[in-house]
Amino acid sequence: MSEIEVKHLTKTFEQKGIVVEALKDINLNIEAGDIYGIIGMSGAGKSTLVRCLNYLEKPTDGQVIIAGQDLGALSEKELRKQRSDIAMIFQHFNLLMQKNVLDNVCFPLLIQKVNKKEAKERARELLQIVGLSEKEKAYPAQLSGGQKQRVAIARALASNPKILLCDEATSALDPQTTASILDLLKQINKDLGITIVIITHQMAVIREICNRVAIIEHGVLVENGLVEDIFNHPKSQAARELILRDLPELGENVNTPELPERIQTDRKLRIVFSENSAFEPVIANMILKFNTPVNILRADTKNVGGYAKGEMILGLPDDRHLQVDIETYLKEKGLEIEEVTGDV
Amino acid sequence: MFDSTIINMLLEGIRDTLYMTLASTLLGYLFGLPMGILLTVTDRDGIKPNAPVYKALDVVINMVRSVPFLILLILLIPFTRFLVGKSYGSTATIVPLVVAAAPYIARMVESSLKEVDPGVIEAARSMGASNFDIIFKVMLVEARTSLIIGATISIGTILGYSAMAGTVGGGGLGDIAVRYGYHRWQTDIMLVTVALLIILFQIFQTIGMKIASNLDKRK
Ligand SMILES: Nc1ncnc2c1ncn2[C@@H]1O[C@H](COP(=O)(O)OP(=O)(O)OP(=O)(O)O)[C@@H](O)[C@H]1O
Ligand SMILES: [Mg+2]
């Protein structure tokens, strides 16, 4: 049994006669312990999907099943109870501005009628985990974005949830802070065994911490699976675009800084390799063998689920035969290659 | 300058004005606060939209608010007499004051509560908060600064109305100003009552704004 099962989920909004199909027949399973990414462009329906997972938004059709329990079958009261198992953090943190850090973390416990003293103890433990013990008396307005998100994470963990939903939780943060928040989420996943669902429009976030990913485009789930598989072999156009737009953002090493200029080439290949594979000799030998230059349009190293992956985009020479030979050659050497269309 | 009778009369005027203003504000909130909450909650983007309830409340509030206070005062005389037994004096004046203040306060409360970040409400809901929790533990708490500023403005307005009620024998400083200043041409007494009204108004403003700013943790 999966921790989260989404079956034929459809959501339509109707406003003044205009019907928006935000989600169309979404099916996906998220297993306990997963860090599951949901990625897509703005307006794709990511927030709507994640809000359906705790029934903040009621699906128009289909089911959301959490640990075997169909949320649609619950009464309003049971649903509120179930929600204490499904915590959520947000892009803009959504802290109570008039309450201090400690009271913010206590808040969900007080709603669940835990007594004040116990709630405070628990809140202090959590502030320890997120590294903000010395800020318990501060108000949100006095904290940085990263600190606010830490408070939000502590608050989300207060009720011992099994699932943590993150809607663009790092989108308002700078790269360093993003990296530290992602580390914290990873640690929470590992130490507390909490299943995490991460909504984002940044491929970098997915690569950094997710093991599985679903790609959403115009309300349709176009592709899902292991992050590594999709990174190596994106099947859908949407996935390719997201991967190509994925500029190094999280303070990673960049081997070639910026493209000097856009090079017009007919055909481009994207090559993915493990960093320590014999990549450079392959390219060098290839150039020697075919006695022709290739343009390296982009090359960098990316962290995919904790493993360094090299990524390079080659512009091939115009000669068709040569193109085929080069492709064959690269495949023989065991590199994962894939055609890229459009501008890089 | 004034003899002791006049000073006593002025002191009583202050007492009556304070009594009318504070009692009307309190009663005004007793009715206006729930009305404001109901307006916010039942509005289209509220936490429990309910068009008929919103619309009904909206219309009643607009109706009462569009009647000038002096006319309301006169219109309500039978009702006041029914409730209090007479239609003049400070206690009787509280009735029309409350009727005028409650819708005004409801609007003040509504606009304060609507300032609360919907994201925070959503977060509370995601934690399993009920509508009751959201109203009392999120909206009223997050909006407290704005609510207190609203209350300060409301007290000022009610103070002004109470003085206006003086023109028809409502008691308090306004009553003195009209009786001495208008009917008996004793301008000095009228000026003193006006000064006293200004001072009272200033005191309410200063205290209200001070409380609001002390309670505001957003900066
Ligand atoms: N309450 C609503 N009423 C009407 N339409 C809505 C509502 N919520 C979302 N939509 C529409 O549904 C679609 C998906 O919106 P959603 O917020 O889920 O996108 P998203 O992928 O989260 O985008 P972003 O990255 O910009 O946050 C959009 O076309 C949006 O306009
Ligand atoms: Mg969104």
Can you give a write-up of this model?
- The complex is a heterodimer of chains A (344) and B (219).
- Chain A is an alpha/beta fold and 344 residues long.
- Chain A is 34% helix and 28% strand.
- The mean pLDDT of chain B is 94.
- Chain B has helices at 4-42, 51-66, 69-75, 77-84, 90-114, 118-126, 131-142, 144-165, 172-183, 187-215.
- Chain B has a single domain (4-215), classed as MetI-like fold (Orthogonal Bundle), CATH 1.10.3720.
- At the A-B interface, helix 2, strand 6 and helix 3 of A face helix 6 and helix 7 of B.
- The site of adenosine-5'-triphosphate has 13 residues of chain A, from strand 1, strand 2 and helix 1.
What is the secondary structure topology, with strand pairs?
The complex is a heterodimer of chains A (344) and B (219).
Chain A: E1 4-15, E2 18-30, E3 35-39, H1 46-53, E4 61-66, E5 69-70, H2 76-83, E6 86-90, H3 101-111, H4 116-129, H5 145-157, E7 163-167, H6 175-192, E8 195-200, H7 203-209, E9 212-217, E10 220-226, H8 227-232, H9 237-244, E11 268-274, H10 279-290, E12 295-304, E13 307-315, H11 320-332, E14 336-340
Parallel strand pairs in A: 3-8, 3-9, 6-7, 7-8
Antiparallel strand pairs in A: 1-2, 1-4, 4-5, 9-10, 11-13, 11-14, 12-13
Helix pairs in contact in A: 3-4, 3-5, 4-5, 5-6
Chain B: H1 4-42, H2 51-66, H3 69-75, H4 77-84, H5 90-114, H6 118-126, H7 131-142, H8 144-165, H9 172-183, H10 187-215
The structure holds adenosine-5'-triphosphate (ATP) and magnesium ion.
Adenosine-5'-triphosphate (ATP) is lined by residues 13, 15, 20, 22, 40, 42-48, 201 of chain A.
